[in-house]
Amino acid sequence: MLVGDSGVGKTCLLVRFKDGAFLAGSFISTVGIDFRVSIWHCLMVSCLCPFQIWDTAGQERFRSVTHAYYRDAHALLLLYDVTNRASFDNIQAWLTEIHEYAQQDVVLMLLGNKVDSTQDRVVKREDGEKLAKEYGVPFMETSAKSGLNVDLAFTAIAKELKHRSMKLPNEPKFKLHDYVKKEVRGSGCCRS
Ligand SMILES: Nc1nc2c(ncn2[C@@H]2O[C@H](COP(=O)(O)OP(=O)(O)OP(=O)(O)O)[C@@H](O)[C@H]2O)c(=O)[nH]1
């Protein structure tokens, strides 16, 4: 499930991942909850694993709708917008909600989106890293516009969920915190 303030780029991140495209132009806010990707068969984790990816509305007025879905989520991608300080400052409030409504062992990842907007950036990478460290969550910076680290973020989550579900005693433990270090840093150029 994708969560975070309205306008941080949740829908665009999902569309970039699913269709390899960027939704440029006017911003249409998600209403309530959206099944934009119903089933994703992830081949990148060496098996056909079906995943449902849910897009949620960031607007406050839909919060009670999204709360109802938290407890069924196995993983949450929590986004802020690096060009919007308030969206970063609200991360603590989002984490409080997550602790209140989500499963205790939910897989959580913090993403700082829109890193392509270098001129407008107001949240430094170090600020994101510091906050993520404080809460013990893996962290990456992404761009739905350029595609930077988008596949990596979803694959990391898929690998973690697959590892948890298989519970193979002899398989080396998948380390999500280490995997996200594959992240490409910088604004990145557009994916073909
Ligand atoms: N430059 C840039 N703009 C982005 C990026 N991701 C999203 N946007 C823009 O940000 C605006 C909001 O994007 P959405 O994906 O609709 O935001 P959302 O988080 O789904 O918003 P809600 O549905 O209201 O919760 C749109 O105008 C997008 O074009 C990005 O990575 N870079």
Automatic annotation (TrEMBL):
The record's subcellular location field reads: Membrane
State the source organism's domain of life.
Answer: Eukaryota
UniProt KW Transmembrane helix keyword: no
Provide a GO biological process annotation: Golgi to plasma membrane protein transport
Q: Which GO terms describe its molecular function?
A: G protein activity; GMP binding; GTP binding; metal ion binding
Query: What Pfam families does the annotation carry?
Result: Ras
Q: Identify its membrane topology class.
A: Lipid-anchor
Q: What is its EC number?
A: 3.6.5.2
Q: What class of enzyme is it?
A: hydrolase
Xref: NCBIfam families: small_GTP
Could you identify this protein by its name? small monomeric GTPase
Organism the protein comes from: Gopherus evgoodei (Goodes thornscrub tortoise)
Name the gene. RAB26
